[in-house]
Amino acid sequence: MTRFRIDLGYRGTDFHGWAKQPGLRTVQASLEAGLARITGDEVATVVAGRTDAGVHARRQTVHIDLPTAGIEKLIGKASRSAEAALLSRLRGVLTFDDTDDIIIHAVSEVPGDFDARFSALWRTYQYRLADRRSFIDPLLTPMTLRHKGELDAEAMAEAAREAQGLHDFLPFCKPRAGATTIRTLHELDVTRDQEAVITIDLRADAFCHHMVRALVGGLIKVGSGTWPVTQPAELLAEADTGIEPDMPMFVTPAHGLVLTGVGYPEAEFYASRAAQTMARRTQD
């Protein structure tokens, strides 16, 4: 088997999320169908981070393993590398219906200990939010949440700064059985761009289910005056001491969210990073 890294992006509007689901169009199902067409075999994909229905990705990362026979079928009689063949042919089969909602950026051969999910150091997301002050760009409305009133972006930015760091993010996560909600949030920045659209940028070692959209929801409560600036940090401080949250999450719509990138260490650290990631997180 030879392992390949695939860097791709997609417009999530018409997908029911990343993961395969019976009878539904998903990014994983579309990608694996394309791989099967060009290799002649079923090919399993491992993704850096699953995205929910309607969430977009500017830069997502996947790895696959191909047997020698599959690689030979890819290359055929052409005098080109397996990487070039996989890039060209995968782009071809994914755009046959002219939708262009999956874009393959690059393909590279990687060592067998590279793991798209567990070798990752961080993921970054951006959420776009337009309020009454913002210029509404019709080309970007499919990936921008519109808020009726005006939000206090400065208060949101202050609350965001206080929520960074190593915490139990249970107040802003939908927990999964047997999984921890402890994460390190390296960055949570709130700014207005040149068109007064509020952009919320996040970077963490990993995100638990609904974490980004629930954090954005909490910041919207701060910006609208429903919550005090200190509320998100106070909820995290309580969770860090084992206190269960006593208020429901406000999860924002998916279409405003974009996965913007995934970072990895140098090749020599792929295996050690994967082992570290698979170990259960603690706050010690």
TrEMBL record:
<feature type="domain" description="Pseudouridine synthase I TruA alpha/beta">
    <location>
        <begin position="159"/>
        <end position="265"/>
    </location>
</feature>
<comment type="similarity">
    <text>Belongs to the tRNA pseudouridine synthase TruA family.</text>
</comment>
<comment type="subunit">
    <text>Homodimer.</text>
</comment>
<keyword id="KW-0413">Isomerase</keyword>
<protein>
    <recommendedName>
        <fullName>tRNA pseudouridine synthase A</fullName>
        <ecNumber>5.4.99.12</ecNumber>
    </recommendedName>
</protein>
<dbReference type="InterPro" id="IPR020103">
    <property type="entry name" value="PsdUridine_synth_cat_dom_sf"/>
</dbReference>
<dbReference type="GO" id="GO:0160147">
    <property type="term" value="F:tRNA pseudouridine(38-40) synthase activity"/>
</dbReference>
<comment type="function">
    <text>Formation of pseudouridine at positions 38, 39 and 40 in the anticodon stem and loop of transfer RNAs.</text>
</comment>
<dbReference type="InterPro" id="IPR020095">
    <property type="entry name" value="PsdUridine_synth_TruA_C"/>
</dbReference>
<dbReference type="InterPro" id="IPR020097">
    <property type="entry name" value="PsdUridine_synth_TruA_a/b_dom"/>
</dbReference>
<dbReference type="GO" id="GO:0031119">
    <property type="term" value="P:tRNA pseudouridine synthesis"/>
</dbReference>
<keyword id="KW-0819">tRNA processing</keyword>
<feature type="active site" description="Nucleophile">
    <location>
        <position position="52"/>
    </location>
</feature>
<dbReference type="Pfam" id="PF01416">
    <property type="entry name" value="PseudoU_synth_1"/>
</dbReference>
<dbReference type="GO" id="GO:0003723">
    <property type="term" value="F:RNA binding"/>
</dbReference>
<dbReference type="InterPro" id="IPR001406">
    <property type="entry name" value="PsdUridine_synth_TruA"/>
</dbReference>
<dbReference type="InterPro" id="IPR020094">
    <property type="entry name" value="TruA/RsuA/RluB/E/F_N"/>
</dbReference>
<feature type="binding site">
    <location>
        <position position="125"/>
    </location>
    <ligand>
        <name>substrate</name>
    </ligand>
</feature>
